[in-house]
Amino acid sequence: MHLTLRQLKVFESVARNLGYTRAAEELHLTQPAVSMQIKQLEDSVGLPLFEKMGKKIYLTEAGRELYGYSSSISRQLDEVDEIIESLKGLERGRLAISVASTANSFATRLLAAFSKDHPGVTVSLDVTNRRGLLNQLANNEADLVIMGRPPRELDLATEAFMDNPLVVIAPKGHPLGKERDIPLARLQEETFVVRELGSGTRNAMERFFTEQGIRLTTGMEMTSNEAIKQAVEAGLGLGIVSIHTLELEMETRRICVLDAENFPILRHWYVVHRRGKRLSPAAQAFKDYVLAEGDKIMPTLMTFGNPRIETSEVEK
Ligand code: PGA
Question: Which of 199, 206, 226 best tests ligand 1's pocket when mutated (most atoms within 8 Å of CB)?
Fold first, then answer.
């Protein structure tokens, strides 16, 4: 049997995702290229590795056997890769960072400042929502992750480095804009545009209102904070976003933060990786940098004119 590492890598991805399209996306290949690699692998194995039932594909028995080996080979290859990278040190390392969509507003700044001091390090930045980050952590795909509230189910090393207050936003001139201590029951009369399921912001918002015994009326659902802000500005409803996404809007005063009872929802940003992961010098240096400088990268929240937001209570 003659098989190549490339075929094994493609196979591992198709088998893990149980899909050619997702594997193609993950590996940055076209779908025909993925199918071709699998076909060649099946030819050299001499047995089919996948079977198709309806629209879904499943591993055959041979596929399951091969998957066990290909996963451990690919983990070992990753380890070799990490060791080689670490030998290159900080001069020429590679750094794969994944951040929550909401953290993108400041993560690029952190990376820009870090890259200035370490110009030899090649950085890749992946931006996805909380659900995407949980998958990446489960599959050990990123060196470091920046996210809100790390999951308890995975064995992770987590360190908080900055507050992440979630606030209620309204379009400029909204009647609630001038009110103080708006009762949560009053918010029930409004419609909210919300982030997609799988977003950390959405989870936190739902948890908060459930705890407070409030049922919100939700309208449109959107997959980015930018879309939420534009929808709020356009009068489609109120929104709940991290204050870190609002810098520009607050400067241009197109959106106002409402002074609602029990707000902001207090969250934190964490830098996270799998416990026991051998961090490369580049990853370790970036982690140290985030822990030392992370909370200085955003203007202090007092600049948003809402003193109640200045707080550092621990996230529940
Ligand atoms: P998200 O943010 O809403 O962009 O997924 C992640 C988080 O706040 O945990």
Answer: 199
Q: What is the CATH number of the domain that holds 284?
A: 3.40.190.10
- Are the C-beta atoms of 40 and 54 separated by less than 8 Å? no
Say if residue 87's pLDDT is above 80.
no
**Cα 109 to the center of its chain, rounded Å:** 16
Mean pLDDT (the chain) is: 89
Query: Ligand 1: distance of its center to the CA of 293 in Å?
Result: 21
Of all protein residues, whose CA lies closest to atom 6 belonging to ligand 1? 200
Question: What does the pLDDT read at residue 299?
Answer: 62
Pocket test of ligand 1: the residue of 98, 99, 101, 102 to mutate, having most ligand atoms within 8 Å of its CB, is 102
Q: Which residues line ligand 1 (CB under 6 A)?
A: 100-102, 129-130, 147-149, 195, 199-201
Based on the structure, what is the number of domains in the chain?
A: 3
Give the pair of three-digit tokens for residue 137: 């952590």
Task: Report which ligand 1 atom has the smallest distance to the Cα of 225.
Answer: 4
Q: Detail the DSSP E strand segments found in 60-155.
A: 94-100, 122-128, 144-148
131 half-sphere exposure, CB direction, 13 A CA radius: 8
Range of the domain at 99: 90-161+268-296
d(CA 134, CA 125): 16
How far apart are the CA of 241 and the centre of ligand 1, in A?
A: 9
Cα 75 to ligand 1 centroid, rounded to whole Å: 28
Question: Are residues 184 and 224 both part of a single domain?
Answer: yes
Euclidean distance between CA atoms 178 and 183, whole angstroms: 13
Q: What is the pTM of this model?
A: 0.72
- Residue 250 pLDDT greater than 70, yes or no: yes
Q: What is the pLDDT of residues 162-183, one digit of tens each?
A: 999 999 999 999 999 999 999 9
Contacts by residues 180-183 (CB-CB < 8 Å, ≥ 24 positions apart): 180/259, 181/259, 181/260, 181/261, 182/258, 182/259, 182/260, 182/261, 183/261
